[in-house]
Amino acid sequence: MSVYRRIGGNLIAYDGLSFYNGGEEFAGKIKGRGSFVLVMAYTDTALIPGITAAGASPELTPYTPPLDAELVHTGRIITLDNIAMTSDAIPTPGIITRAAIMLSDFREFYVDAGNRIAPVVPHFRVGNGPGADIRTGKAVPCAKDIIENARKVGREIASQSEYLVIGETTPAGTTTALGVLMAMGMDVNNYTSSSMPDNPLSLKASAVKEGLKNAGINGTCDPLKAIECVGDPMMAATIGLVQGAKGVPVILAGGTQMAAVAVLLSKMCYPGEYDLALATTRWVAEDGSASLFGILKGASINIPVIVANLSFARSKYKGLQAYEKGYVKEGVGAGGIAAAAILKGVKKEKIEETAELIYSKLMGQP
Amino acid sequence: MSVYRRIGGNLIAYDGLSFYNGGEEFAGKIKGRGSFVLVMAYTDTALIPGITAAGASPELTPYTPPLDAELVHTGRIITLDNIAMTSDAIPTPGIITRAAIMLSDFREFYVDAGNRIAPVVPHFRVGNGPGADIRTGKAVPCAKDIIENARKVGREIASQSEYLVIGETTPAGTTTALGVLMAMGMDVNNYTSSSMPDNPLSLKASAVKEGLKNAGINGTCDPLKAIECVGDPMMAATIGLVQGAKGVPVILAGGTQMAAVAVLLSKMCYPGEYDLALATTRWVAEDGSASLFGILKGASINIPVIVANLSFARSKYKGLQAYEKGYVKEGVGAGGIAAAAILKGVKKEKIEETAELIYSKLMGQP
Description:
The structure is a homodimer.
Chain A: E1 2-7, E2 10-15, E3 17-20, H1 23-27, E4 35-41, H2 64-74, H3 94-103, E5 107-114, E6 124-125, H4 143-158, E7 164-169, H5 173-183, H6 201-215, H7 223-230, H8 233-244, E8 250-253, H9 256-266, E9 276-281, H10 282-285, H11 292-298, E10 305-308, H12 318-321, H13 334-343, H14 348-363
Parallel strand pairs in A: 4-5, 4-7, 5-6, 7-8, 8-9, 9-10
Antiparallel strand pairs in A: 1-2, 3-10
Helix pairs in contact in A: 2-3, 3-13, 3-14, 4-8, 5-6, 5-7, 5-9
């Protein structure tokens, strides 16, 4: 797909992007020097067997957020000797993020919303440790504090940025996304995505239902309570960051998790209060087991959407080809930062090639 | 005092510095681009009434480390509307640090060794919350983990630095310094400095004695145990940073607290393993109520010392003149980073003037 658009008198080719809901108009705001913000969080929800593919083993899952941050910031893994890959060597989408960062002039900021393990990367800290298993119904009791802390950080980052691209790395984050959407009364049981080709929807839904029951939610609750009971720390941090960055365009870089954040935000502000768009990968946009657009439509929010039509179909590595078979799909803000880089003139193919190079270096492959 | 030295064929004036124990030779290594590292920590020892002047009130004392970091990094205070000053408007030495940072090309890194409150500044996190009151004898049970985490961070920082200047901001840190020195069997009761002109030596010594008793230490213990029982998280982090930065010259920027770290380190390594110096302010070096050199001599360590002969005697502000009367004296790496800036060609008077300007802006004074 290819779209052309005239900005400031110059014809710019947006090869590799698709736009929905006014995404093209929003894209016109992406100029100057923007900042990539990676929000890290862990939730004990990730301990539910079979719920996430993040991390080579359950013991390593809490390392996924810090390792993603290290990879994006340095191109290396520091905290562990192992690498941030799923068990069959399918790499984290962080390789795409790292590629986009290397190919453009983004500033980078890292935010610990609730890590179990701190990354060896300078970061802001807005939370106080991991979220609890959502089945408890007490997932993030301190969500309000996280929002408030993140607001200050968002203001600080926005003061030195022409726009923000906010991505996240949160194992089991699609389950908590389902959680808050259901807590707010949305019928979205089949709408959230997964890092696995066989989306464990019934497993996720039963975890959410247990959490809602234990939280005493059986109708519709407000967004803050939804996060506190069945959400994750990333959501609270991202909401605070957006609030603090008011006045500056913000791209929520992600799939169903960021769609859930957009829905939460839409219920906490007046229409048009924030200048927001959602940007993700083709792998999420085309996900047959979920529906990004279904979530947005279900919540009646009309947020601009930009899709980066990345492809690893021509890759020589099986680990990257797996993306074409429904593995991983999105995360670490990959789709959104790739879209922003493309809007700044970076070729989509260059991002794919650079990601492949980063992957081969990580694997020690030629 | 004025010292001249020939480096690389050029005569460089070190106006404003004094050298001891081979400090001049060490100074020759300070060239290229160095990094300033600020280690932040809090300890509940600061809650002992009368023990520290850091913070405008006991409730605000835990804010001192994050506010110092914010001031050095941005020139502003973010977390509180109040400012990081002692109760009678005597400013934090962070204004000197900020001045030196502004006037040279140092990279800056911030390390949370054990904060109660996170700064709105990107930082590494190597600890897990504040240290306990040393009277418990269980001040920093996780000191070993902090050292290990800090080692990774030190390695990371050193990989992009030609030298390191490590400063600290730790309320009640002179008391914990006394603690570890006494725990290691040194007779240094009257040797540690204070941020107050009337050094509460007996109060400090009685807190240490209570801690030693509760820890069951009544002879001489090893350095790690000393920190675990009656130290603070800053010490563990600084030791780890130095170990990780092995091979790169490191200035420990501080007075009696950094002298205590030097003593701890000397008992954990072989002679010459690290390329270390100590640098501080004239206010500490001339402190009649304490003896930096007494501590070093007592521990039989022959570390190079550099003193920045800063003076606020000519300042128009009473808050700065107070430094000449024995208030504050040192902290936030002020003496060491000022010395490094002077070694890089910045005039001492320029640092003093810039610090005064920062102070007047903070106070909203003309």
